[in-house]
# Entry
Amino acid sequence: MLWIALHAPLLSLEAFCATLAPADAARPVALLAEHRLAAANAAASERGLAPGMKRATALALAPDLLLGQADAARDAAALLALAHAALAFTPMVALEGAACVLLEVESSLRYFGGAARLLQRLHEALAPLGHRLQTACAPTPLGAALLAAWRADLAAPGAHGTDLAALQDLLDRAPVWLLGPAREHWEALQGMGLQTLADLRALPRTGLARRFGEGLLDDLDRARGTRPDPRRPIVLAPEFESRLELFARADTSAQVLHGAGVLLARLVAWAQAQQGRIAGFRLEMQHEPRRDAAVAATPLAIELAEPSLDPAHLQLLLRERLARVELAAPTLELRLHCKQLVRSAAPNGELFPTRQSQAQGLLRLLERLRARLGETQVLRLVPRAEHRPERAGALRPVGEGGGGGGGRPGPRPEPAAGRGTGPRSRQELQPGPADLPLARPFWLLEAPQALAEQGALPLFEGRALQLLSGPERIESGWWDGGLAARDYFIARAADGALVWIYRARLPQAGASWFLQGRFG
# Structure
């Protein structure tokens, strides 16, 4: 077996700083737990601040210190996002402590091209989450976790115990404080002159167990591989739900978008672990309550025309929607929920553009238009079961089901069924409808335009039209008072343009020929 351990030494601090503005993140930042510093960033460390220092002492050294409260729930959500990203590489992912993720990757090495390539792909997948990671490999899970926690202090950074002998040799040189139970007795162990795990192993086991407990020896044996160490993998939730408390209240949509970017990165990691793509999600903004009453949360639903895993595209759609939202009150907390996951193969990459890739570009454009203008402002033409041309199509929002479905462009309207061909004119009209590229035009006039007539032929812009195809007879609408009894023709104008005209079989205001639409 081969285990990879991902240790995030600054997970708690990074999870807190993720909601800070860039200017605030550059300041000295520290987290408090029971009135003492639990973590400090690099700028705070340069001022002499260190974990364990009292709050008053820290403020005396750095008056501009930005203090936050340590939050175990916030840290757990950040660690779970790391585990979700790791699940895209192996189903055996477990948590170790509050800042470490373990992966068993022996069965995945061949697929990813070896351990080096797998580690590279793993770090690329984890990069959007914004955590500094220490990585180590070992044949035991606890051994990998100890090496990852100690990796910053190794003489040769990146050293891994790839076999049991190498792991045991590395662990013998590791400090005693790496073991969890040893931290509780660190002062006693230090007073006894025990610095490394090799020093600990040199002592009688019965005496160690009697003085420090069985847990210390149990951890040592599991890390060295002399005792079984079974792990239970994490189980993915069927729906994604994550919350993020903002450090400062967000008064603008840009501030909300900054915090939502953290949740979107976690959402993408969860979708990749599910081997699926995101079809939609909902962002809920919890507002600051007013003096007299609470302010209702603002929900914001994003529907995608084509499922995607591109975080930049998801953030772009969210930015377009947030630009149209007026916040009822400053936002204090964000919640992101997703249950619209599509488990299907992703589109293949293409060397040369095809109709599929062009359609993909159209879908992205429709998504942006819907996000910017609103769901009901972007319309598409869908066919209706109606013989009369002016009623054979209807405009519907792109996101509605039916026709195109899922935001896709709808199918091209087919000619209405049930048409009679009618008698042919004395002069044979060539070519026939089957020889023409379209039997009906897409562009129809809002109302038919009456045409003058000369010598039994219709006139268009003062010149006679040349009839190319027809007649196509339509008789419909007697049941609703909109009777249409017409013979349709395709005609060519003097400039070569094709038009769609009809001859009314019933008198209409003194005119018998009408222009209904244009081709091209």
DSSP finds 17 helices and 21 strands in the chain.
